[in-house]
Amino acid sequence: MPLATEITLPKEVRPEFPDKCISCHSKPDSEIKIIQNSSNPLLAFFIPLIMLFGCSRVKVPICRKCKKGFLLQRWSREIILIIIALVVVFFVSPYFGEWSSLSKKLAVGGIALVAIIPIIIVEFIWPRVFSTTAWANSVEYEFAERDYALEFYKLNEEKVIQSDVDDV
Ligand SMILES: [Zn+2]
Fold first, then answer.
1. R_g over Cα of the chain
2. For residue 69, how far is its CA from the centre of ligand 1 (angstroms)?
3. What is the pLDDT of residue 16?
4. In what helix (H) or strand (E) does residue 33 lie, and over which residues does it extend?
5. What separation in Å is there between the alpha carbon of 68 and the centre of ligand 1?
6. Tell me, what's the pLDDT at 39?
């Protein structure tokens, strides 16, 4: 189980957030728009079709001074992932030139999988402050801070489909 706390709401629900910065929990003086297809690098990498599920769009309270760090954390991981994927595809693919199309895809996919394992571990151990995963009919909201997740849960309790705060 990831160390982040996950709360799933129906896709059409606009969730309410606590009146606290997502990052430092002080009074927010700004907000940040999050648009995301999938926070799961494995899914995002292997199932680009997940894009068809649509994306989640949500406004999250944040203070101005935390914005930079939040965006940096978010994009640095995305960018590292994309770079690894590109490196594998461009530099490893040629070695499998003689292979059939399917086995080549499997081989390159397997190498890419191994290459992104460290990222998956990082995501697991140090979850992002906040992240979302959009599914066909629902959106998963993932919080690194359990207390913040609990407040979020209480604000949206009636609409929650599934969460791992039930045991509290
Ligand atoms: Zn803050």
1. 18
2. 10
3. 95
4. strand 30-36
5. 10
6. 47
CA separation, residue 165 to residues 6, 21, 79, 127, 140 (Å): 8, 20, 31, 16, 13
For residue 4, the CA-to-ligand 1 centroid distance in Å is 19
Cα 29 to averaged position of ligand 1 atoms, centre (Å): 9
Enter the pTM of the model: 0.72
Is 168 inside any structural domain? Answer: no
Residue 51 lies in a domain: yes
Full domain range(s) for residue 21:
5-163
Measured in residues, the chain has a length of: 168
Q: What is the tens place of the pLDDT at every residue in 15-73? A: 999 999 999 999 999 999 887 654 455 555 555 544 445 566 788 999 999 999 998 88
Residue 133 resides in a domain: yes
Distance of alpha carbon 88 from alpha carbon 92, whole angstroms: 5
20 Cα–ligand 1 center, Å:
8
Give one word for 46, left, alpha or beta, with left for phi > 0 and alpha for psi -120 to 50.
Answer: alpha
Q: How many CB atoms lie within 10 A of CB 153?
A: 21
Supply the pLDDT for residue 50: 46
Whether residue 40 is contained in a domain is answered as yes
Structural domain count of the chain: 1
